[in-house]
């Protein structure tokens, strides 16, 4: 019923990932490992875990993650069978030992009521060799509210701590932003399909922050910036109605700020902002917003 899909490339922390799967108290899952033409030999390590949990392994001969991480996710998901629910687990992330057990324990609560189930999370900081305090969430939360909490930096979210229904994935898919930055944020907004996200706070997914992954690598700043601009344009175009005026101003401010990191707003971007402001704000609020956000 639950497929855990791992798009593999880096060996450095992968044994810890596999060990966390072997330590699951409930083994009702199947792991699908898609090797993205990695130069690092994985076979000997996989032999060590034969029989400890159910997994299938496939090596792709062409590296795809270097040009499109989303397409690598997609071809790894295609390795899976008919499981109704999917988790994409990073090759350096770690599951707490009760993650799968608590997922099944809560199944009756979220089945048919939600397309997205997430876990509490902690961050592993490679540089300082420390672990963050726990990040928890409301038991039930609208996806747009969840993202706004992330925008305000009072919460966090990433790919590994979510499971999603195959039906919602097949309906929407992952949008292919550069470096897949924000591709998961957009997926949760779309996959939810007007149903709330259900959270299991009793189990934890450990997400690694290191110089080897996209989140921790500062060399990718320009690509991340481009992804942010594209994502916030989508958010304004498609999800603005779910926010109040204060939240809309924050989102527009974020959109403009991401553009101004590298250049001035162009004419079409100004027209885009003015158009959505005229639709959603009254004249007084619009004047206040422009004064606050765009004065030079």
TrEMBL record:
Keyword Mitochondrion: no
InterPro entries from the UniProt entry: Glyco_trans_2-like, Nucleotide-diphossugar_trans
Span of domain Glycosyltransferase 2-like: 4-98
Enzyme nomenclature, EC number: 2.4.-.-
Pfam family, one: Glycos_transf_2
Keywords: Glycosyltransferase, Membrane, Transferase, Transmembrane, Transmembrane helix
GO MF, any single term: glycosyltransferase activity
Signal sequence residues: none
Transmembrane regions listed in the UniProt entry: 267-286
Matching CDD domains: Glyco_tranf_GTA_type (cd00761)
Protein name: Glycosyltransferase
